[in-house]
């Protein structure tokens, strides 16, 4: 039976504010190869800085064998896991491990909470293995001999700002929150810091929301009924107790979404992240972020920070936040087991895709290639396509001329992974897709085995499209490096020359004050408080730059014309507005502003706003504010 248990530990330090907006960069595959060679099964995985270099490492606890291995972070990859301990208790998998500095020496130690697992003396306790930077040494006696029963959620975090991680346990059955403070050599007596917090099916977490050095208690009401669904509650630590709960966010992380806590902005305050799209192999994953202002999580509408790769059930559902590259900002990690073919003797492999937090745009250039002085490109001479599909299946690459409809297919193309599950492998060349200068293309990577595709190689079937981007061809431009599977369509992010005047032909153009580029439209929509976080941002840029293919440019410009110098009081999703205006997913009209039915557009905006905010407005003007 294959099983992985997720544990997340975050320990990042403050960083001064950055000028550019933060986001999760395109995913990069970080690999892990077991030094002993066994399959990556029956593991508990945790992330934390075990050697004090400021970068979170990957810790693997094989609970059937009692072996603990660590893949140290190099800042750009995890090294081959080395054995840090071989004498850990063997359990049936119920135990919890976390990496936290319990003695204040700057190195993350391994905190093991059997959680009521079998074959463990004492059943429920807290054991510690101190880190030397190269190995874990298990203490002969538990640091707390009565801790973390099977029905509790337990964490190791610094609750009183003494630079030593303490213990906190949420008792969802009854509500009390227990703590046990570290003395540097043991955990002290259990104490109740809050009598009723994080109960029933709420998701419990801990993080320093206000930046005072003391971790606070956090509860996500993911599946609550009525108006409470999506509420995020905060119970702040005073150093001796958790204060009365306060509302941190009114609607964030619901139903099956993964709720994470970590300092992604680097300001010393814990933020919240929701990963959505689970259980749908036909969808890309999305990561939504709401930043802490010290008292609550801001952005009434969570802003999207990244669209993640499409995944399969075999490696879905495992996520963590940890600063793996040492820039003081927590990065998003997606990881899981990649099964090997049944007819081979190879072991399963553990893969991790890191979406690094950054304030720099993705350029679409090959790794290691210096970015030009001006990050705005005016076209690409060709496309270098890399098959890095996470399930290592073959893809077909389609090149479709947006204006003429001419299309070409290349494939099937093998995945470019090496024996260490790195992609590209550095040996095999990418697939080159030729372009004609001056033309605009839709590039589609088709995965025939995708759910709903039914084995067909058809770029027009939504379920078959593994990844899509738009590019403008230019004879003397650079090559667009398109990493399909783990990375975003970086080329499209900066192709700002999808100008409406060039593409629309006989279209009636909007007023000069309304932007005519994809990036300009996105900027103007943001200023107007129009949220575009629901669709894939890279793909949306392509839609906004191609009025002959999608109605988004015309609808967006007409909407901006209606808003004028004002903005929406409460944000509305542009894709919901577009869908309510034209519910046909394959619609290509309206292509121009002149074709937009203004009354119909106002009705679509009202419907989208009322649906999102639970209101009953009937006048478009009431949605706006100067």
UniProtKB/TrEMBL annotation:
Taxonomic lineage from the root: Bacteria, Pseudomonadati, Pseudomonadota, Alphaproteobacteria, Sphingomonadales
Cross-referenced InterPro entries: Integrin_alpha_N (IPR028994)
Keyword Hydrolase: no
Gene3D superfamilies tied to this protein: Integrin alpha, N-terminal
Annotated protein name in UniProt: VCBS repeat-containing protein
Organism: Sphingomonas crocodyli
Leader peptide range in chain numbering: 1-19
Keywords carried by this UniProt record: Signal
PANTHER family: ATP_GTP-BINDING PROTEIN, SENSOR KINASE-RELATED
Positions of transmembrane segments: none
Keyword Signal: yes
SUPFAM superfamilies: Integrin alpha N-terminal domain (SSF69318)
């Amino acid at each position: 039976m294959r099983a992985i248990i997720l544990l997340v530990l975050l320990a990042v330090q403050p960083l001064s504010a950055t000028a550019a907006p933060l986001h999760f960069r395109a995913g990069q595959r970080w690999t892990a190869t077991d030094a002993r060679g066994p399959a990556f099964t029956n593991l508990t995985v945790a992330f934390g800085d075990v050697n004090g270099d400021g970068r979170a490492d990957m810790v693997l606890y094989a609970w059937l064998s009692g072996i603990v291995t660590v893949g140290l972070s190099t800042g750009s990859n995890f090294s081959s896991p080395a054995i840090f301990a071989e004498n850990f208790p063997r359990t049936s998998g119920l135990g919890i491990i976390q990496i936290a500095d319990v003695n204040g020496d700057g190195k993350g130690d391994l905190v093991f909470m059997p959680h009521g697992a079998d074959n463990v003396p004492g059943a429920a306790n807290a054991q510690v293995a101190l880190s030397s930077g190269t190995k874990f040494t298990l203490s002969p006696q538990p640091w707390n001999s009565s801790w973390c029963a099977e029905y509790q959620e337990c964490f190791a975090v610094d609750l009183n700002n003494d630079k030593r991680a303490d213990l906190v346990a949420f008792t969802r059955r009854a509500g009390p929150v227990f703590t046990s403070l570290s003395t540097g050599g043991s955990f002290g007596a259990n104490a109740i810091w809050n009598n009723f917090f994080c109960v029933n099916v709420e998701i419990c977490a801990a993080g320093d929301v206000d930046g005072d050095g003391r971790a606070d208690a956090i509860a996500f009401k993911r599946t609550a009924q009525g108006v409470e669904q999506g509420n995020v509650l905060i119970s702040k630590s005073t150093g001796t107790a958790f204060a009365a709960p306060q509302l941190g966010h009114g609607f964030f992380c619901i139903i099956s979404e993964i709720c994470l806590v970590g300092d992604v902005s680097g300001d010393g305050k814990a933020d919240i992240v929701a990963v959505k799209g689970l259980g749908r192999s036909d969808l890309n994953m999305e990561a939504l972020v709401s930043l802490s202002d010290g008292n609550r999580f801001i952005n009434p509408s969570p802003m999207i920070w990244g669209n993640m790769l499409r995944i399969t059930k075999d490696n879905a559902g495992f996520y963590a936040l940890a600063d793996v590259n040492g820039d003081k900002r927590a990065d998003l990690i997606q990881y899981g087991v990649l099964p090997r073919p049944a007819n081979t003797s190879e072991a399963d492999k553990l893969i991790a895709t890191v979406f690094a937090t950054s304030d720099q745009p993705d350029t679409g250039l090959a790794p290691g290639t210096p970015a030009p002085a001006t990050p705005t490109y005016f076209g690409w001479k060709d496309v270098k396509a890399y098959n890095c599909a996470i399930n290592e299946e073959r893809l077909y690459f389609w090149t479709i001329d947006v204006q003429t409809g001419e299309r070409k297919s290349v494939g099937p193309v093998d995945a470019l992974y090496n024996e260490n599950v790195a992609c590209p492998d550095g040996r095999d060349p990418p697939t080159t897709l030729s372009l004609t200068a001056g033309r605009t293309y839709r590039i589609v990577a088709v995965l025939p085995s995708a759910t709903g595709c039914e084995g067909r190689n058809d770029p027009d079937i939504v379920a078959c499209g593994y990844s899509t981007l738009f590019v403008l061809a230019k004879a003397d431009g650079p090559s667009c490096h398109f990493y399909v599977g783990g990375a975003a369509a970086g080329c499209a992010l900066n192709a700002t020359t999808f100008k409406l005047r060039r593409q629309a032909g006989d279209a009636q153009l909007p007023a000069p004050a309304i932007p005519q580029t994809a990036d300009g439209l996105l900027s103007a929509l943001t200023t107007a408080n129009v949220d575009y976080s629901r669709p894939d941002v890279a793909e949306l840029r392509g839609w906004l730059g191609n009025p002959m293919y999608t109605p988004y440019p015309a609808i967006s410009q007409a909407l901006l014309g209606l808003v004028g110098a004002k903005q929406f009081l409460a944000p509305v999703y542009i894709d919901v507005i577009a869908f309510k205006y034209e519910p046909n997913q394959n619609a290509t009209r309206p292509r121009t502003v002149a074709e937009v039915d203004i009354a119909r557009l106002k009705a679509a905006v009202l419907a989208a706003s009322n649906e999102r905010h639970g209101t009953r407005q009937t006048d478009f003007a009431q949605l706006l504010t100067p």
